[in-house]
Predict the structure.
Amino acid sequence: MNLNIFKTKAEMGAAAARQAAAWINAAIAEHGEANIILATGASQFEMLSSLVKQDVDWSKVTAFHLDEYIGLPDSHPASFRKYLKERFADKVAGLKQFHYINGEGTPTAECVRVGALIRTSHIDVACIGIGENGHLAFNDPPADFDTDEPYIIVNLDEACRRQQLGEGWFPTLDDVPTQAISMSIKQIMKSAAIVCTVPDVRKAVAVQKAVEGPVTHMLPSSILQQHPRCEVYMDEPAAALLSNR
């Protein structure tokens, strides 16, 4: 795990996008194509806005969806499918394919469907974030570090749901779904490279524990310490509690 700290979120996002694009282009050069994972949420705003401007042959890139609420239509403002279409897929020219998670179908069947797709794909780059409660994707604590299933049904804890409320995606806490389909921890860790983008002071405690604390399923993002090629991008408020800056 390598740490990169920037004064502003714009600088952070631009640097994270450049690294992601460099790894994507390297995969295309080596394999003729690239497979990536994309996350959503406020932490990815600046990174994605810069990523879509990078010099990448998107016709050779297939993207996989990290997580999605169960039961939320893609017309809802908080839909992650809507987010990724508007902030990424609609902004890049000729994307080869995007494998979205459909949270409106039968959850177990959808896990099987998208799981079968990603099982046969080598993931070159995962672009992810860290939640206020330390979650990775929607793997809230205590996270399952052991399942081999690529996608799983998860229950969202109150801290996670309050984060979604606080970021303005829902009008009340009761409106935030209680379950989601999430890529599993093991599947995320199979990625050849990880770009983790984490802005804002509200993430400072989670960042400090993920970077400097023990690896534990009670702080799921701490598992990133064990990834051999993980670059973490932060702004100064998110890095404020780190002892070795």
